[in-house]
Amino acid sequence: MTFDTPAGRGGPLKRLFGRRRGAPSRARRRLGSAVRMVAALTLAGGVYTVFAPGAFAEDTRQLSAAAQEGKALFDNSCISCHGRDGRGVEGRGPNLIGVGAASVEFQVGTGRMPMARQEAQAEEKPPQFDDAQVQQLAQYVQELGGGPVVPEGELVKDPEADPEAMAHGGELFRINCTSCHSFGGAGGALSSGKYAPSLNDATPRQIYAAMLSGPQNMPVFGDNQLTPDEKRDLITYINLQLQEDKDPGGLFNLGRYGPITEGVAIFLVGIVILTFSALWIAGKS
């Protein structure tokens, strides 16, 4: 046996005890890392599922009784334009996810929805649903995707309890609303065939819902622009000053567009009186 010769060193021992195991290949190392990663992710997912079951509650939550009634109305009257899941249909109706109950109260409660036809602006018309049905539709859309909600409670303040509400509301109205709705709340024309509607018949809830949802060209007045208390001040001014006090600036109802209409009326009446007076004097002479 030649254990000491270089040429034969270890030859018989290598054959006797076997070759040394070589280092794992790069492919085997990558495969092992991938297996460990999949196992870790599976374990993390299992732990999350066990300790956070509420994460999957949204997909399987039950609608309230009012929302179920609203869903039945929605499926019969709204699904063709807004889709089965309320995400809208291209060219027909917008996505309702996130618009909230406030948008439904304004659009459906004023008869603007359902629309009779596609045009520049949805026109106000007699509502197709009563107040209870509007609330059911609003509740369904709210539970479907969330969004702004008109608060419950009185939206018009008592001037005797809060004497500053009327004055503050008038200031807010002049700053934020008169450029479109005019100083008397009669509305006015906008660009591209659109218009700002009259506020004469708008209810406090409709006004509050419009401020929250920003329909048509109207901007959204979130709580960071106008606080809920300021919104109530503004509604108090509209309800008690513009709607109940029909003629705050004159003796006759001339549309409440400001001094122009009264000036034109006085001019026309004056011209007629002067003309007849001149004719009478000429006839006498």
From TrEMBL:
Protein's recorded name: Cytochrome bc1 complex cytochrome c subunit
Membrane topology note: Multi-pass membrane protein
GO CC annotations on file: plasma membrane
Catalysed reaction, written as an equation: a quinol + 2 Fe(III)-[cytochrome c](out) = a quinone + 2 Fe(II)-[cytochrome c](out) + 2 H(+)(out)
InterPro entries linked to this entry: bc1_cytC-su, Cyt_c-like_dom, Cyt_c-like_dom_sf, Cytochrome_c_Oxidase_Subunit
Binding site for heme c 1: C78, C81, H82
Taxonomic classification: Bacteria, Bacillati, Actinomycetota, Actinomycetes, Micromonosporales
Keywords assigned by UniProt, alphabetized: Cell membrane, Electron transport, Heme, Iron, Membrane, Metal-binding, Repeat, Respiratory chain, Translocase, Transmembrane, Transmembrane helix, Transport
Annotated localization: Cell membrane
Residue positions binding heme c 2: C177, C180, H181
Subunit structure and binding partners: The cytochrome bc1 complex is composed of a cytochrome b (QcrB), the Rieske iron-sulfur protein (QcrA) and a diheme cytochrome c (QcrC) subunit.
Cytochrome c domain location: 65-242
GO molecular function: heme binding; iron ion binding; quinol-cytochrome-c reductase activity
Origin: domain of life: Bacteria
